[in-house]
Amino acid sequence: MARRALKLASLVAATSGIYLYGNKFLDPNDFGVVRVGRAIATTAVITYDYLTSLRSVPYGSEEYDFLKSQVHLRSAERLRELCCANRGTFIKVGQHLGALDYLLPEEYTRTLKVLHSQAPQSTRQEIEQVIREELGKEIEELFVSFEDTPLGAASLAQVHKAVLRDGRTVAVKIQHPKVQAQSSKDILLMEVLLLVVKQIFPDFEFMWLVEEAKKNLPLELDFLNEGRNAEKVAHMLKNFDFLKVPRIYWELSTRRVLLMEFMEGGQVNDRAYMEKNGINVNEISRNLGKLYSEMIFVNGFVHCDPHPGNVLVKKCPVSGKAHIILLDHGLYQVLSESFRMDYCRLWQALIKADMKRMQKYSRRLGAGDLYPLFACMLTARSWESVNRGIDRSPVSASEDVEIRSNAAAYLPQITQLLNNVPRQMLLLLKTNDLLRGIESALHTRASATSFLNMSRCCIRAVSTYQRSRSHSLYRRAQITLAEALSLWQINLYELFLWLKGSQLGNWVIALLSRMHHST
């Protein structure tokens, strides 16, 4: 057994060496021997576990399912330990995997979610070094005070509270010193290891994860790009008075240091905080849904990292209104117009339970014959609920268990689907899962109001697109009238739902019932 594990480790190491040696743009000596060895050893042990643990057990039996769950759990724990040890890019990718609820077996998502709270912290000396290199001054020259303990630490950076010489309280985001140099090498190492695993398990299709990391990590490591994104989304959503985006202080910002307005609040999934501070949980959930529907369907510019640490809530002491504070603008997805229109029409079909149009637009988005699985992944609902109408009934505990079980059972099909859909879809799926996690924590998941807000945005987006393509004044007027009528119908239905759930509505229904009986 040990001999076979050693052979597998040797195979991985040899393949990695050949691949790296053949890459003329990269010096293999730039890799830390310990980091590479740790990654190879972990990959070999996980692979060997899957190869041997299930070999003599009948497929589909209760014992097989139990053992498979144990292998998933052991492998997830080993992967988590690897991410914590290698830090940086490994933690970032591990966090991404942990956010893929309903796409990966629960053992993986549950185990890897803790990486959000186990990110590394740079030392004071390392922070001073980065600020000195980027801003050319010492911390004491720039700030009256600078808190040593970070407000939060993530895979790529950490944030400190400080006070500038002019008295402004700011949040200082500082990149971990070694991340920039290690990121490209870490991604290359992951690519090699995944290619080897795919040779052993042909159904293993996770190269999309490496491709996404290749594309997104350089953007996330450029803090000037993050600042521009913050200003763009603040302007884009300026009509939402409940949204707050920290102001960027450009004079003290670089690619590795970002100074912004200091804002604080409770995490968006902290129901106890909201109840303690008199914040309406349903209103927060509803407004968060409005924000993301507007970003996805109307603007096609989407904040793709809405985990609870990046979305805060706070009650304004003056107005009494609850504000949503959106942080960490490093990762945005720009949706092409054709993709956005197909995605709008797909969601309209899902909400209306229009199976014919649902199949049509799922296929146009790359799902092919796996369109039923695609619909379930998008909605996190069972196929039965999708057919019945996802707005007809909330998610039950049994349905939730069924979906999670199917994620493990259909893993090969899910990975195939993720390889086939447009790259734009991958971050949207991650964003959907993060938002569902927030809704689940707040116990507001799958409310009818959230689907109504989505419908409004889809109608507005499609109508705007149709008007832009029409050269006839009469046709544009028709589109505008149809849009107004559809929005009016949604408003009327929303009023009906409000009356149905309110005390006034109960009185009206009771009165009408008495009048009916009396006649």
Automatic annotation (TrEMBL):
One of its GO terms (biological process) is lipid homeostasis. GO terms for cellular component: mitochondrial inner membrane. Residues 145-474 form the Protein kinase domain. PROSITE patterns: PROTEIN_KINASE_DOM. One of its GO terms (molecular function) is protein kinase activity. Keywords: Kinase, Transferase. Appears to be essential for maintaining mitochondrial cristae formation and mitochondrial function by acting via YME1L1 in a kinase-independent manner to regulate essential mitochondrial structural proteins OPA1 and IMMT. The action of this enzyme is not yet clear. It is not known if it has protein kinase activity and what type of substrate it would phosphorylate (Ser, Thr or Tyr). Belongs to the protein kinase superfamily. ADCK protein kinase family. This is AarF domain-containing protein kinase 1.
